Fold:
Amino acid sequence: MSNETPLWEVFIRPRNGLSHKHCGSLHAADEVMALQAARDTYTRRGEGLSVWVVPSKAIFASDPDQAAENFEPGVDKVYRHPTFYDIPDEVGHM
Amino acid sequence: MSASLFNALLELGDDHLIIGHRMSEWCGHAPLLEEDLAMPNMALDMIGASRSLYTYSGELEGKGRDEDQLAYLRLDREYKNCLLAERPNEDFAHTMLKQLYFAAFMEPYWQAALNSSDATIRGIAGKAVKEVAYHIRHAGEWVIRLGDGTEESMSRMAEAVVEMHPYVEELFTMSEDAKACAAAGQLPDRETLRNAFEQTISNIFDQALLEVPAVPFPQLGGRTGHHGEEMGHLLSQLQYVQRAYPGMSW
Structure:
């Protein structure tokens, strides 16, 4: 495995004020090459102002087998959504 | 019209078209998927620059020749690109080194052209200068990694330097037309770019553990239309569609 080209996750910020969003992955030997490859692969149509690359192996992901215990307890707790308030008209759009 | 400017822009346009075409030959053959996108990206930058240069030189000529006619409907001796541009791709190391040489020359060239007395040339330079800055970075990082890489990559990179370096000097030679345009402040004097070029190359070669070889006999001839054998094969592919279907557009 050691001579395989490492995998990188690419995050792009489309505009100032927005956050970086994951947009894909690519192979590259190191972080400098990964950044260049990300620029060439994911920003050819003016998609971004800033690019992050992160080694895929640095990402620790949730286990799909634990999806039920992780996420289902949140589904039936409607009171956690702020939908029970009457917004006064003078507030306008929030 | 200015015959000198027409001719000098054609030399510049031919450099970009031919080296861009060479780079485009990698499309679908690059060693990595990521590079298979990056190389045609660079090819499109260069072909894009050639389009602007041909369009403007066609306007200066005033005989109704457009970019397609200048790019596709001339004979091999009428192309005035430097020999570096037309050299075959060989392996990846050759191609990256060739791109580095060309970009390391064009970056200070376009920088200087930002002060041209000609507004259209300033416009073309403004766009191109950003593109070549990236080409230096992209090709340079590869040259560094291949030069300071494995035994195999190191020997191929060193071979590429021996093979390609004799073609560098032609970037600095100037036709009478190019000299006239430099004197008129329209295009940069190529000789003044030597320091910037050498600095870029020696900075990258130092990191790549490569040496700049002495070149007692530089390879010249492209600027006078004396091309290598490979140029004919390149043109037969480049011109095929316009020759087979004259006036075709899409």
About this structure: Chain A touches chain B at residues 5, 26-29, 32-33, 36-37, 39-41, 44 (CB under 8 Å).
